TrEMBL record:
InterPro entries: SOD-like_Cu/Zn_dom_sf (IPR036423). Residues 16-31 have a biased composition (Low complexity). Residues 1-56, 163-189 are annotated as: Disordered. Belongs to the Cu-Zn superoxide dismutase family. This is Superoxide dismutase family protein.
Length: 274
């Protein structure tokens, strides 16, 4: 059973409604009143409609903020849902997008209880670990990959794919491309290259650990980048085989660039509430 481990919503200061000054504090003049500049003890002025309105506004604003936070969490939930063993460490709605998730690889099964699947346990052992991070602003994307528990001193290919992981290795679909190759499969170096795709090839050390990073001068189209796929060998670059890296040996479903749609939905909710 999938569980949401962590999901948070961060609103800009401009999106948080202002509470009228003094509305949340104690009523002024309790037990004392001022007449002609002189304090008179024991006099409590009767409440006026003008004082009631800020308190009512404050209660309404407070309820609206609470509703917004709840709605924002629900909006983000699909992007932040993690299977048993996964951990969402950060997922916020703002101008920049940042997410880091981690999991252990398991074998595919009908229940699909894990987002990280190994199709070749000899190359990607069961219970080996994977961590993927994304940092994106308006026009740039950084994707990081870390693995441990794999075969020592071995080179693997790795790319961002368009589909999520499934029981079959081909479920993850083709590579994500910023400029789409009109021909499939894409083996033209003009399209299948690390500037137009996200390549994360790595070589493990003596302990089976490795890190890799890809930096691109663009952002993912929302909903079109869904996984990181590990292949059996380094990615080829020559015409006719560019972008190929052998069999798919493992796959990890990742919520890339989900903040844009969620931010629009939150903005629409703000308009309705305020």
């Amino acid at each position: 059973m999938q569980r949401l481990r962590e999901s948070s919503v961060a609103l800009k200061s401009s999106e948080v409604p202002e509470v009228p000054e003094g509305a949340a504090g104690p009523a002024a003049g309790r037990g004392r009143a001022v007449h002609g500049g002189r304090a008179v003890s024991g006099v409590t002025p009767a409440p006026t409609p003008a004082r009631a309105r800020p308190r009512t506004a404050a209660r309404t604003a407070g309820a609206s903020v609470a509703a917004l936070a709840t709605a924002g969490t629900l909006l983000l939930a699909p992007a932040a849902v993690a299977a048993d063993g996964d951990k969402v460490t950060k997922n916020t709605v703002n101008q920049d997008y940042s997410v880091t998730i981690a999991a252990q690889f398991t074998r595919p099964n009908g229940a699909m209880l894990s987002r990280a699947l190994t199709y070749d346990p000899k190359l990607v052992p069961v219970n080996s670990h994977v961590t993927v991070s994304e940092r994106a602003n308006s026009d740039r994307t950084r994707v990081g990959l870390r693995v441990d528990g794999l075969v020592a001193n071995r080179t693997y290919g790795a790319h961002v794919h368009t589909g999520t992981c499934g029981v079959r290795p081909e479920s993850s679909g083709p590579h994500y491309q910023h400029r789409k190759d009109p021909r499939t499969p894409s083996v033209d170096p003009a399209y299948a290259n690390p500037k137009n795709e996200v390549w994360l090839d790595f070589t493990t050390d003596g302990k089976g650990e490795a890190n890799s990073v890809s930096r691109n001068a663009w952002r993912f189209r929302s909903g079109e980048a869904r996984s990181v796929v590990i292949h059996e060998h380094r990615t080829a670059t020559k015409a006719g085989v560019a972008g190929t890296a052998g069999r798919v040996v493992a796959c990890y479903s990742v919520p890339f660039n989900q903040s844009k749609e969620a931010a629009k939905a939150v903005s629409g909710l703000l308009g309705k509430l305020f």
